[in-house]
Amino acid sequence: MCEKRLAGKNALVTGGSRGIGRAICLRLAQEGAHVAINYASNEDAAKEVLALIEADGGSGSLLPFDVANTSQVKEKISAFVKEKGPIQILVNNAGITRDGLLARMKEQDWDQVLSVNLKGAFNCVQACARDMMKARWGRIINIGSVVGTSGNPGQANYAAAKAGLEGFTKSVAKEMATRGITANVVAPGFIETDMTAVLPDKVKERLLGEIPLGRMGQAHEVAAAVSFLASEDASYITGHTLHVNGGLVCQ
Ligand SMILES: NC(=O)c1ccc[n+]([C@@H]2O[C@H](COP(=O)([O-])OP(=O)(O)OC[C@H]3O[C@@H](n4cnc5c(N)ncnc54)[C@H](OP(=O)(O)O)[C@@H]3O)[C@@H](O)[C@H]2O)c1
């Protein structure tokens, strides 16, 4: 049982229906936050997350929207705030991949990955920041990736979006520090979720061989880093990238 160090806070987790986002929702709720579970289309999975939270004595709400759709983000977040109050903790986790070698990458695959992974975070920060500034307290945690640091063949779009997220986060951290808001990145390595389940076995084997801890990470291990950055224990950490990658890339 976790300490209720986030009691009384509202948290929004984008892409909370599956994988890493799901684990973050469960962890923040265990620590006492009311969690808005965002998702794009998988309502059954999101409902399952909400049921798990409630079965554990926590509270949450379903908040479907497409993070890449600016007007939808504004509308849905403002409706949530009217009903439940301001969002103090924002976790930009929603992400997609559209992998392919650069020479053959379709413009649409570049645009979609940038829209969801990077513009999505911009949309949600803009929609939540005013309330955080008013309250002079806020936590923004953006989920990056090890490939934002290392690059990866076949992922030029995804690596650009994740590297962009780091520059974005550092700028937000510097702009909003005087208002008591911190902004950080958690950069996972190779984590067992639907996103990595589709990788060919050969790629998985090669990657496993490169991880000093010798195994894939689990979503709850990423969630633990997020919950730390959301807590008072991390009050003097901003503009930082916290790598959760088993040593795959050492920074
Ligand atoms: N898994 C890894 O090894 C790994 C490594 C490094 C970084 N990451 C990053 O960690 C984050 C989570 O990855 P994951 O592996 O947990 O992914 P996942 O299992 O594929 O889940 C993706 C989540 O994002 C949601 N989503 C996708 N597009 C969306 C949109 N336009 N608007 C709102 N929600 C949307 C999905 O909602 P639906 O259920 O409705 O589709 C789902 O909840 C991503 O940012 C990813 O880039 C993952």
The side-by-side strand order for the widest beta sheet comes to: 3-2-1-4-5-6-7
Whole-number count of domains: 1
Largest sheet: 7 strands, parallel
Rg estimate, integer Å: 17 Å
Indicate the topology:
Elements lengths: L9 E4 L5 H12 L3 E4 L5 H13 L3 E4 L7 H15 L4 E4 L14 H29 L2 E6 L3 H4 L5 H21 L4 E8 L5 H4 L3 H10 L8 H12 L10 E4 L7
Parallel strand pairs: 1-2, 1-4, 2-3, 4-5, 5-6, 6-7
NADP nicotinamide-adenine-dinucleotide phosphate binds next to helix 1 and helix 7.
Outline of this structure?
By secondary structure, this protein is α/β, with parallel strands linked by helices.
Tell me what the structure shows.
This protein has helices at 19-30, 43-55, 70-84, 107-135, 147-150, 156-176, 194-197, 201-210, 219-230; strands at residues 10-13, 34-37, 59-62, 89-92, 138-143, 181-188, 241-244. By secondary structure, it is α/β, with parallel strands linked by helices. Strand 4, helix 4 and strand 5 form a beta-alpha-beta unit. It has a single domain, classed as Rossmann fold, CATH 3.40.50. The relative contact order is 0.15. Helix 3 packs parallel to helix 4 and helix 4 (107-135) packs parallel to helix 6 (156-176). The model has no long low-confidence stretch (mean pLDDT 97). The structure holds NADP nicotinamide-adenine-dinucleotide phosphate. NADP nicotinamide-adenine-dinucleotide phosphate is lined by residues 14-15, 17-21, 38-42, 45, 66-68, 93-96, 116, 143, 145, 188, 190-191, 193-196.
Notable characteristics:
globular, Rossmann fold, alpha/beta, binds NADP nicotinamide-adenine-dinucleotide phosphate, 251 residues, 9 helices
